[in-house]
Write the structure tokens for this entry.
Amino acid sequence: MSENFEPTNIIVTGGCGFIGSNFVHYVVNNHPDVCVAVLDKLTYAGNPENIAGLPADRVELVVGDICDAALLDELVPGHDAIVHYAAESHNDNSIDDPTPFLRTNVEGTFCLLQAARKFGVRYHHVSTDEVYGDLALDDPARFTEETPYRPSSPYSSTKAASDHLVRAWHRTFGVRATISNCSNNYGPYQHVEKFIPRQITNILDGVRPKLYGDGRNVRDWIHTDDHSSAVWTILTKGEMGETYLIGADGERSNIDVLRAILTRLGKPADDFDWVRDRPGHDRRYAIDSTKLRRELGWEPKHTDFSEGLDQTIAWYTENRAWWEPVKAATEARYKAQGQ
Ligand code: NAD
Ligand code: DAU
């Protein structure tokens, strides 16, 4: 049976990152009785600007590491839920150096689960569709909650490991936990290392975009606002021990997305460079989110990708001060990797 859970005081890990900060805004804007403690280490991917201006009586930033058990012992009591977004999240970085992925994604999840267990706190785990590996371009199938785990990259294998920990802590220790596995997010505040913002900001900087492999890899795009509403739905209505896939039927090839960005920014559709492919590059992701829609009544609102892309391009165009400080270092890292 689904439980109707009404949290008032939640911890959001990774709340200064792209998707976690969107969720913090979502909660503040839509649930006026809920206060949020953001626990974030402020790695290269975390930016306090992402939650700047939110009311101080409702949002508190705690700068710290999810692997710090003593900090969790202090922070977790008095809260009624942990919504866990914090992660090392970028595949290319995990190929360059998997070490922080093991620590944050696996050990960090372990520490949070131990705290949830110790203090009897509800736990929601934010995971990825990449735990299921990839699909062939012509495969009629999409991922469901029953698809076997088959991760390909150091990043996705650590996310898969963390999902397994959550299921074990639920079954063995009774932790009140749910898991969501979402597809590729896009929208404002995404780090410029990721595909869509990298290409937009390259063009804005007068640099040609970079496409991996043959460009035919498919990603299933969802606006990050829709990811946030789905996580809230699962947190408050989800059945304990269950997994829900989040997706918005947004399959598109990388080359189609890149050409759409180029055209919108007034460039010829072939004005890009082909670069070295990502080792182990997953071919296609596709989500069947029927369970979440049927059982919990969630629906995405941003189903017009074209409109969402226009808004995202406009945001990066108008917010150069947000991304310019990290752009050069990001591109230097890609250059060293031949990408
Ligand atoms: P991000 O890289 O933008 O943000 C990660 C945040 O976690 C940053 O604020 C960072 O400072 C923080 N963090 C990292 N290590 C930490 C640690 N040890 N302790 C505390 N904080 C730490 O990531 P994102 O793209 O917003 O992804 C958020 C979550 O959503 C991740 O768990 C990711 O696996 C999952 N996810 C992402 C996508 C996507 O398309 N980006 C899709 C599905 C699922
Ligand atoms: O599917 C969910 C996952 O989506 C999340 O779990 C990850 O945290 C998130 O980073 C994302 O992973 P991807 O590897 O799919 O996203 P990325 O933005 O890195 O790349 C998207 C696609 O674009 C992928 O096929 C690789 C390709 N690409 C990427 C970059 C950065 C390029 O062709 N050129 C590029 O410059």
